Amino acid sequence: MKFFRSVIKTMKETRWPTRKEAVQDTTTVITTAIFFAVFFAIADYAVQAVIKLLV
User: Fold this and answer.
1) CA 42 to CA 35: how far, in whole Å?
2) Structural contact between residues 17 and 25, judged by C-beta atoms closer than 8 angstroms
3) Tens of pLDDT along 1-55?
């Protein structure tokens, strides 16, 4: 029982993000993921090109 009381207490003390904050955070995560996907795609292409030149 102590565990469940502790969980309820913690849930009440938790500050949940507003809709605006949630949208902003989601946008940041998606933008960052796209950036890294493009970055690694370019890096992969460059490494492949260098390997083709060497082989």
Assistant:
1) 11
2) yes
3) 899 999 999 999 999 999 999 999 999 999 999 999 999 999 999 999 999 999 8
What is the CA angle 37-50-39, rounded to 5? 15
Residue 41 in contact with residue 33, Cβ under 8 Å? no
Collapsing DSSP to helix, strand or coil, 5 comes out as helix
Name the region of 18 (left: φ>0; alpha: ψ -120 to 50; beta: rest).
beta
The pLDDT value given to residue 52: 95
First to last CA, the chain: 67
